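Backbone Fold Data
Goal — fold tokens
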Amino acid sequence: MIRNVLGHTLDLLGVAIIGGRYAVGGTLPAEPLLCHELGVSRTVVREAVKSLVAKGLLVTGPKLGTRVLSTEHWNWFDPDLVRWQSQQGLSRDLVRDLQELRRIVEPAAVRLAAQRATADDIAGLETAYAGMRSAIEDGGDYVTSDLRFHQGLLTASHNRMVQQMGKALGALLRTCFEISTSRPDGPARSLPLHRAVLDAVIAQDPVRAEQAALVLIDGAALDVETVLNSRRKLPSLALPAPVLKGNRPR
């Protein structure tokens, strides 16, 4: 119960900060006022503030109070922060930052995966790929399988830093995949590009795997840019991943 209250309080404060209710450089209301406003104890408020300090949204100190930090201090790899930002509306700059980060990290990780992937890694990637294909043909959740595929590639690099980055990037990647999947032909066009990456990893061909990953990422970037330019509303992580209707003849 206490954990649920703390989580709810953390969400309320996080969304309020990201939404601009508390200005950058400004101070949060005094602790008694926050307790009254949120209807929680001082212990809950203090724990929530500690979490927000750890996420880079706040700073506390003697004679300083509890102040809101600017966005360059925020931990954009934190899933809570990404979820709160999604609820407020993802910025196009943030989505483009993610696309650039993917192009830097993923091809190198896939190159390593082609050298280090185990039989279990390959089996997991095949399962994820089968889930993507099934969603396209029969309808269903494509995004979750897409996320598992890409996180599986990072895991198959067997580099601990890259693996940790994959976990941290999960929420951001899901948002990116939801945006690209929102194009009617996006998943069907990207499926063979995923297969090319997987086949190169299976063949233990790091050069071909890296190039295939670049083609896949650049294709997704084009889809994302098209959606961004359309000014369509971006997805919210507060909602379940959308499902495809399927294109297999009935």
